[in-house]
Amino acid sequence: MSESTHQEELYYSYEEAKKVVQQLGIKTYREWYMYASPYYLEFKPDNTIEKKGIKPPHERRDPRLPFDPAAFYKRRGEWKGWGDFLGTGAISNKDKKYLSYQDARKVVHSLKVRSAEEYEKLVETLGPSFGLPPHPHAYYMRNEGHFSWRDFLYPRFVSYDEAKQILAAKDEIVTVADFRKARKEDPDLQSIPSSPHITYQDEWEDWPTFLDSKRKRQKLKNLLLLQSRKSVKGHQPDDKGGKD
Fold first, then answer.
1. CA contacts within 13 A on the Cβ side of 149
2. What is the DSSP string of 176-238?
3. Span 131-156, mean pLDDT?
4. What is the number of helices (H) and of strands (E) in the chain?
């Protein structure tokens, strides 16, 4: 009998180990680590661990339970994840099945998620059942071999022509000062960069063209002229009176 075979026989089978661990009431990996360690451990708020002394023999891990059950039972081809081992049913992120990159990208683009921060909030809001991985870079690099935040997220800014269309509908934005002020207050304008002449430098013409200023000024001029005519007409004397 080889030494490795003899060593493996010193430990419980996977199913036996599961029963023992679940009877101990261990529900998380952290609890397992605290139990399995020969030291008393204290987990700090900054995620560091401090050793508080050596456990006496009667408080130490059952010697028939391997210190690293995941590695040990994987070698045997029996490991099914911590959720199965601890009886919680929890599945680690790396073992979960999420949407494919392209399907997840479609969801992200349809909801116009423009940053990693927005994506994180979306995943938190929708929950795991929606199929979006909480760490898309790691997940898709591991499972599909590629990932790009720039491609995955909805474009942070609309195209030059789309920006012009949005601004064309904003008659109150005629000057650069109008644009800068409105962009701070109007959510619709967040998809337009604050420095469009830099972002769209390859297509840039000039500010008046970008803001459609000439048409807006003419429209305003015509409106004021029409109002002026109505005002004058309203003050004209009534000619309907007859002669005496």
1. 11
2. HHHHHHHHHH-GGGGGS-SSHHHHTTTT---HHHHHTHHHHHHHHHHHHHHHHHHHHHHTSPP
3. 87
4. 14, 2
